[in-house]
Amino acid sequence: xxxxxxxxxxxxxxxxxxxxxxxxxxxxxxxxxxxxxxxxxxxxxxxxxxxxxxxxxxxxxxxxxxxxxxxxxxxxxxxxxxxxxxxxxxxxxxxxxxxxxx
Length: 102
Fold this sequence. Notes:
102 residues
């Protein structure tokens, strides 16, 4: 399943969240073999998170489960931040990284 497919799955779920008290949101996704066009759909999540019901959101974290080689995390983070720049402009902290088990 490509990241775009996962975003297709997440957007309607987020669209049905009705809590204006949500302050932090964390997504954990498997790290697929990545190419650029699969990482340019994050703006769709950003569009939902800019709605009034997410007005208390202060932090968005996207974690990937390391599974196989792909693009560097720096490049992945750059693509996600580029698509979600409107959220950062609104003061929402965006973190992107690899999930690590304790």
